[in-house]
Amino acid sequence: MELCTFYDNIEADESLTGVGVDSSDENNICVIVKHTMSGLTTKMPIDRIDDHEYEFLLSILTGEREPLVLQHMTRVVGYFSRVDNWNTSKLGELKDRQKGAYVIG
Prior knowledge:
Layout: H1 3-12, E1 16-22, E2 30-35, E3 40-45, H2 46-49, H3 54-61, E4 73-74, E5 81-82, H4 88-99
Antiparallel strand pairs: 1-2, 2-3, 4-5
């Protein structure tokens, strides 16, 4: 679904209020939407909006469906491990390894 169509659907739905946009992380810009009947506020990444139909997104915004949470895994340390519990230094090491900018000295 295109982002402008998503915004139009939010504006047309009386039970939803567009609260704003969170752009504090330029790699993960999110739309913030409040479901007025339940008080549920959802922060939805913009890149996920393109991947789904409005009915699916609406079920998340209204609380009928739990959002899918992905577990990111990597094999930096010689075995597969989840990265959601890594500290800042380890995440930085992972980002450096993904660049492939290695120097043999």
